[in-house]
Amino acid sequence: MPAPTGSPAPRLFSRGSWPEVKRIGDILRTETIGGALLVVAAAVALIWANSPWSDSYAALREIRIGPAALHLHLTLSQWAADGLLAIFFFVVGLELKREFVAGDLRDVRRAALPIAAAVGGMTVPALIYVAVNAGRTDGALAGWAIPTATDIAFALAVLAVIGTHLPAALRTFLLTLAVVDDLLAITIIAIFYTDRLNLLPLGLALVPLGLFALLVQRRVRSWWLLLPLAVATWVLVHESGVHATVAGVLLGFAVPVIRRAEGPGPGLAEHFEHRFRPISAGAAVPIFAFFAAGVSISGAGGLGDAFTDTITIGIIGGLVVGKLVGVLGSTWLVQRFTHAELAEGLSWWDVFGLALLAGIGFTVSLLIGELAFGEGTAADDHVRIGVLCGSLIAAALATVVLRIRNRVYRRLCVEEERDTDADGIPDVYQRP
């Protein structure tokens, strides 16, 4: 129903609080550097895999290390996907919990929009992929979840470069959408991509996880106590058959957000996030990208075969068209049913550009591809080509739209900066 007479209409993408805007800015700076490293790592892998020395790249990926007794004698590629990405999902868990416990999104009205956009942005790409591959009986439908994920580092890095003056609310929206998207993706991985389930180690994983939760709830920060418990949780979840990155999310959820004692300073979740986000963005994700992105695009099984394969077509269609329709359509439906209005100065072209940007699916999409079809298979190679091409197309289209909008906001930001007091906080965040 319409808002009561005399009450202001709800606003979509309204300006958040200054502490939250400042925190998002800090995250963006870290993710921008990480996104640049991710792109460089993926480019190096792609060039190496298509060079005369491609055999050495394949041999590097297949080097095995780790204790065989614990079923951890894994290839370097598997360590990157199962081990390093657990750090990435630990940070995702920390960020998501903080957003909904202490961030601006603890307000249900603010949280509804990015959640709805994330759900729509996962549902429509999956439907497009299924529709394109509906007639196949060779297992191609197993990849239905590949185009559903938005890559946080890659998308935010592109946004930081092309949208230097876009409103902070749009950046917050994209960050939160991507975080919720990753949470839903890891849930899909746990439910739909678990081939075997060993209940004994899964149950035993609750012991170190519980001890970890008990210690962090008591605000213990000692790494020599927490790290062995985290590693034990990861090992047992890995042994259970559930993808080991799920352990990272569970450990992140266990960390408290609110400070127990009053006084200045960050809570424990924010403290861990400051410590581990640089490791995740600067090392874990780029290393995974290096091992996952190297695919041959020439000769047999290259681009010619890939672009006639409905797996590749479904992924590109899901990332470019599906994400756009899902995110933009869900945002419109929220606006339609809540009778909300866009915040002053914003345009639906902004939402259009962000929806395109959400089509950058890289890290989690590649991970799901490996789980769906098996690492090193022809289908997995086509997945990598589809993810790379779809992400590049989405990034290019988003760049065109958001660069145009960025020119408009550049002028407005100059005026806003003039209204900043000596305390460093823009006046717009201090007005009643």
UniProtKB/TrEMBL annotation:
<dbReference type="GO" id="GO:0005886">
    <property type="term" value="C:plasma membrane"/>
</dbReference>
<keyword id="KW-0813">Transport</keyword>
<feature type="transmembrane region" description="Helical">
    <location>
        <begin position="32"/>
        <end position="50"/>
    </location>
</feature>
<keyword id="KW-0812">Transmembrane</keyword>
<keyword id="KW-0050">Antiport</keyword>
<keyword id="KW-0472">Membrane</keyword>
<keyword id="KW-1003">Cell membrane</keyword>
<dbReference type="InterPro" id="IPR004670">
    <property type="entry name" value="NhaA"/>
</dbReference>
<dbReference type="Pfam" id="PF06965">
    <property type="entry name" value="Na_H_antiport_1"/>
</dbReference>
<feature type="transmembrane region" description="Helical">
    <location>
        <begin position="199"/>
        <end position="216"/>
    </location>
</feature>
<keyword id="KW-1133">Transmembrane helix</keyword>
<feature type="transmembrane region" description="Helical">
    <location>
        <begin position="383"/>
        <end position="402"/>
    </location>
</feature>
<protein>
    <recommendedName>
        <fullName>Na(+)/H(+) antiporter NhaA</fullName>
    </recommendedName>
</protein>
<dbReference type="GO" id="GO:0006885">
    <property type="term" value="P:regulation of pH"/>
</dbReference>
<feature type="transmembrane region" description="Helical">
    <location>
        <begin position="346"/>
        <end position="368"/>
    </location>
</feature>
<feature type="transmembrane region" description="Helical">
    <location>
        <begin position="244"/>
        <end position="261"/>
    </location>
</feature>
<feature type="transmembrane region" description="Helical">
    <location>
        <begin position="310"/>
        <end position="334"/>
    </location>
</feature>
<comment type="function">
    <text>Na(+)/H(+) antiporter that extrudes sodium in exchange for external protons.</text>
</comment>
<comment type="similarity">
    <text>Belongs to the NhaA Na(+)/H(+) (TC 2.A.33) antiporter family.</text>
</comment>
<feature type="transmembrane region" description="Helical">
    <location>
        <begin position="112"/>
        <end position="132"/>
    </location>
</feature>
<dbReference type="InterPro" id="IPR023171">
    <property type="entry name" value="Na/H_antiporter_dom_sf"/>
</dbReference>
<feature type="transmembrane region" description="Helical">
    <location>
        <begin position="144"/>
        <end position="166"/>
    </location>
</feature>
<feature type="transmembrane region" description="Helical">
    <location>
        <begin position="70"/>
        <end position="92"/>
    </location>
</feature>
<feature type="transmembrane region" description="Helical">
    <location>
        <begin position="173"/>
        <end position="193"/>
    </location>
</feature>
<feature type="transmembrane region" description="Helical">
    <location>
        <begin position="281"/>
        <end position="304"/>
    </location>
</feature>
<keyword id="KW-0739">Sodium transport</keyword>
<keyword id="KW-0406">Ion transport</keyword>
<keyword id="KW-0915">Sodium</keyword>
<dbReference type="GO" id="GO:0015385">
    <property type="term" value="F:sodium:proton antiporter activity"/>
</dbReference>
